TrEMBL record:
Pfam families: UDG. It comes from Holdemania filiformis. InterPro entries: Uracil-DNA_glycosylase-like (IPR005122), Uracil-DNA_glycosylase-like_sf (IPR036895). Residues 75-155 form the Uracil-DNA glycosylase-like domain. It comes from the Bacteria. This is Uracil-DNA glycosylase.
Length: 198
């Protein structure tokens, strides 16, 4: 299945929306990492070029977590899919709520494509907010409490049978600079890896 084609065929095509142009077997995916927002240049996204900016920090996090990957295909082969909560590049320093709302139908459909999903990692506050909007629609409640990620990290949160891990943003230069958040995000990925490999 091609993710972009599937989402365009079921949700529709909208200007500015950037979707993952990647072929995969949805039944093979056990975990999804939801990053905050697509980059302005699609080549810098997870499924863009081999030297994409988003992959630099992603591979570093996975190496720190004990999975030494060097390509996005290796992550897919390990049953791990990465996407962005907001499918429109941000135009200001913060992500507009309207951008989350426009992107939500795509993210909701995207999550529904994976029948063997065991874990969802919410990489940053925007991902948590978008995911809560989905759970509010489907379950009439937020799955992720509105408290700091630091306090949530050891909570066992579930969306049906799927374990939800609130974590820290995984892209951008700040993640490498903020060593404590980098270490905690790597720990969260390590816990997710243990869950999907058991």
């Amino acid at each position: 299945m091609n993710i972009r084609t599937e989402l365009e065929n079921t949700v529709g095509v909208q200007p500015m929306i950037q979707l993952n142009d990647v072929d995969l077997n949805p039944a093979h995916i056990r975990a999804i990492l939801i990053n905050e927002v697509v980059p302005a240049d699609p080549r810098q996204d997870f499924y863009g070029s081999r030297e994409a900016d988003y992959l630099t920090t992603t591979f570093a996090l996975f190496r720190e977590a004990g999975l030494p990957v060097t390509t996005i295909q290796e992550l897919l082969d390990a049953g791990i899919y990465i996407t962005n909560a907001v499918k429109i590049p941000k135009t200001e320093s913060t992500v507009e709520n309207s951008a989350i709302d426009v992107s939500l139908p795509y993210l909701k459909k995207e999550l529904s494509l994976f029948p063997q999903l065991k874990a969802i990692l919410l990489m940053g506050d925007v991902a948590k907010k978008a995911f809560n909007k989905i759970t509010k629609q489907t379950l009439q409640k937020n799955i992720v409490p509105a408290i700091s990620t630091y306090k949530l990290r050891n909570s066992e949160l579930y969306y049906g049978d799927i374990r939800v891990f609130p974590s820290y943003i995984m892209t951008g230069k700040n993640i490498l600079i903020e060593k404590s958040k980098f270490a905690m995000a790597a720990e969260d990925i390590q816990r997710m890896l243990k869950l999907i490999q058991d």
